[in-house]
């Protein structure tokens, strides 16, 4: 196994775990105040297109992580939408379609889609910013989830650099920057 794939598998494990603290926090608190449903839906969509990209480039770590991460992201969506029946049945076909299109579409279509999906954390940046601006307290955003996501993205960055892939370096850097923004805002919301 190459060093790049090692970092990829560590990132994969962390990626799977990043949703768990958020799911548990929402369940424990009984609410999702301050947590962006749009972000977790986009994170699930992001997992689907990255699965397609992993299939496209033949990356075992990317394939394994995106399947598991997509499933875990869906647990957050389901926790936030408790009582809204049929949500899973709406998400799964979209997940499959995103993976298929990304795996088969020409690169000039896929690359912009991958970059767009790195903005999946932006709804949480906006939500956290509004909470901070309005002095809202009691956020259900899990700092454990944010920290795990940070570690995951740092490992993906190492993977991307070691593979010397401009697409992966660029997309991971964008995702890392938005995650840093969420961390900064949420830490500020707790002080």
Task: Give the SSE layout.
Layout: H1 3-17, H2 19-29, H3 37-57, H4 60-80, H5 87-104, H6 107-117, H7 122-134, H8 143-163, H9 166-189
Could you characterize the architecture of this molecule?
- This protein is globular.
- It has 191 residues and is mainly α.
- The protein is 81% helix and 0% strand.
- It has one domain.
β-strand number: 0
- Total of helices: 9
Which secondary-structure class do the elements indicate?
mainly alpha
Q: Uncertain runs with pLDDT below 50, 5 residues or more?
A: none
**Count of individual domains:** 1
The main pleated sheet reads as:
none
Care to give the gist of this entry?
Helices cover 81% and strands 0% of the residues. By secondary structure, it is mainly α.
Tags for this model:
mainly alpha, 0% strand, single chain, 191 residues, globular
